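Predict the assembly for these two chains.
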Amino acid sequence: MPEKKSLETQVLIIGGGVTGTGLARDLGFRGLSSIVLEKESINSGASGRNHGLLHSGARYVSSDPVSALECKLEADILKQIAPHCIDDTGGLYVAVREDEDDYIALFPDLCRNAGIPCESLSVAEALELEPALSKDIKAAFRVEDASIDPFHVSLENMNQAIEHGARYFNHCRVTKFIRSNGRIQKVLARDVLNKRQFEIQAQIVVNAAGAWSGEIAKLAGIHVDMIYSKGTLLITHNRISNHVINRLRVPSDGDILVPGGTVSIFGTTSVRINTLDTIRPTIEETDLLVKEAATMVPQLENTRYIRAYAGVRPLISQKSAEPKISNDKAGPGDDRSVSRGFYLIDHQNDDLDNFITITGGKLTTFRLMAQKTADLIAKKLHNTEGCTTAVTPLRSNAPSQMTEAGMSFRLWAQKGEKDDITMCECEMISRNQFKQLIGWLKKNRKKADLNALRIHSRLGKGACQGTFCSQRVTGFMYDEDYLKSDEGIYNIKDLLQERFIGQRPVLWGNQLAQTELNEALFCGFYGLELEK
Amino acid sequence: MEPLHHIETDLLIIGSGMAGMSGALFAANRNIKAVLVGGAGGFEYSSGLLDLWGKSLTQKGRLTLKPWDMLAKLPGEMPDHPLAKLTKETLKQAFSELMASLKTQGLTYGGRKAFNTLVMTPFGTLKPCYRLPVTMQANAEAFRKKDPCLILDFKGLREFSATFLKEVLKRDWPSLKTHCIEFPDTQWRSEVFTPFLARSMETQQVREKFVHLVKPLLRGEAYLGMPAVLSVHSSDKALNFLETQLGVRIFEIPTSPVSVAGLRLKEAMLKALEGSSVTVMPNQRVAQVVSASDRGFDCRLGSEINPVRVHAGAVLLATGRFLGKGLVADQQKIHEPVFNLPVVQPKTRNLWHGQDYFSPGGHKINQAGIETDAVSRPVTPDRQVVFESLFAAGSILAHQDWIRNKCGAGLSIGTSFHAVQSFLQIHGKTC
């Protein structure tokens, strides 16, 4: 948390998602100082609530071929600079019986025209690669999709930015912009945890708040017309496939299955919502997804789901601004047809010289979005250093690796410390790893509570959803003097409530039994639902 | 394939949790010829504390010390609750019969005559119970008096942190001290587990080493507390020995799974059934009900390869809820998998859970289950008895939330007692 009441920086970035942190990294390389303000925690918006898919571009070959190529070029760059955040699985596009033959026939040409590599496979070849696929598939293509860990990326972005002088503040909300003479003179913000107010003076203010960009712009007195499109995704108990599997049809619900370490992620829906107050996955969306999923991968009908989650795509209404990358095939009805290209808006035109909004876009193109934004900032600040983010490796810091499923175990096995013990069996995280992580959080003046540990590791993300690890890790934190008084109990309650919201839509079968055990333990035995 | 074994019995008890096992004991005490089958039973998840009713019905989100007062209100407040249908006499008799059986196995339970006891958990919160192992009695006493007390922690034990307890309680209990020791003979282990420690505490050798280790740590404290590891089979004796040797009141703190105090219950109940009229067939689930009628039941146990056929005049279904697989939910509905009994349940999955996990009112799904008549027999929605000699008991029953109301043990013990009584009433002459 900021200790000073007043902070100064060259660039203030609002939003600690993949774009904001990527921008901080870019600016750092150019020798420009920045502060990132995040209202919750890193990637708590759409950056952390997506498939974790590094797009080959093939999904956009029909609706938006320019975005498609952009995806391919950016994915190639990220595979070069951040291989430790990426599982280069490759992807398949498969069509089932009811899918339109016309689109299937067009697909290879559309890919070729857009510059997206695509290889035709026989049904037998596809089934050999991915035995979980339905025997009813009638066409298959191989593309260059990959799986990417967005938490790992954002954490490393920020780590590298901090090494270059950036600062990062969690749980800080912008409350007011003080503007005069066509500039934002000061930004007032509040730390939502300790309620303290502080102010920031910046030469440039960047609105990288994702779906919340409209709200931030409004604080500055500017109208940015956002469309809120909620997408719900499901996490399976096991890894179902080795490739990313896409449904070969015009983009619709439940098209994509992405392996993520030891699990798979399946989604999404696209539901227009009017406010950002409650972004929760619903039972109806979950059931729709499971039904759609099963046509492509039959076992998804009976598999165990660990949880559901929902994110809001930061889309922008066409009439609000000219997109950086235009979309000329936007059809009515489905928000998926709204451009996934990004928007870089210089609010000079709104009589604010030093305010910029960067929104829209995709996880895959975050680096390019950061680059274009940094170029504009550099121009305004007369900085002539070029962008080097495409050629500079995203360094690997040990603590950030723990967001990747399966990584904790590998690290533990490599180290083989004799007196180390497992604290979380679902995700195989050891005591020393938590100790290291807590130390690192403390060093970076971040609050080391259970939710922070969850964000920085796989804590609470396995089958038991925090039943056993939450108690053990809390006990350990007390033993190590990190927790005082009864704050551990509130930590546990917060974590379990947060986990429950995601589990609620998938509570049937085994996961329901798991939750019953959890409730019997934390309510039946510990009585955490009672008044103190 | 033809079954290798045919078993004829009067009563088949399905389920080896609290309800099934106590039902078996009640059957054994009445010399009823019975067979008990079931899975692991879930005792490793049980704190070993036996509650009857712990939640206040008058003050929201509070506990009560007066279970009988609450139960007396139950017919008015929750008329469908299974405990509302039982008399105080039935419940008292059920508890005292069970307590007597446990005592013969060296597992003594105590408690206040008519009131609840509040036992502190590893979080420093309080768990109400009606009956508790003697090894935990001083737990409640120490907490009440706040006298000087030392809490022991064991190196490498993940399920317990004495510091956690101390930090939560320190404001009200400043004389609470903690110390972490290496449990005897665990030097070579980085990780220790409660059942392992408890089993080693079975031996005199380890008890003596323990005394030797702990004696120098005591500075005139009135109480010595520790996680529940005072052996599995001889906890009464272990407590006695340590208290005599260390000259201090000793208590256990129930732990989260694997819970030794729960394992003790299971082992004591199994031992009490040895040589009785009840045949225990552990780790056998009913694979198929081949035929079921008012005259009796024909069930196939185990695998296709090594099947066992049980023919029973009556069945006591005590298979528990979702964790015990007594109830199974798919995306649409909740089912009862053994007899496909009608399950009372909310209309849609949307109603199963609320949004607030820790809501004091609980979730509607917890009220789902099997509806029974006055003599514990499952009934259809129009209240027709499903089978003349099918009885149900325990947490599978509808209209109760044992988790929120802190009545899990009372529910299982009381309803299984009532079911066995009902069985006798209906089948008494044929047994």
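The first strand of chain A starts at residue 6 and ends at 14. Chain A is about 35% helix and 25% strand.
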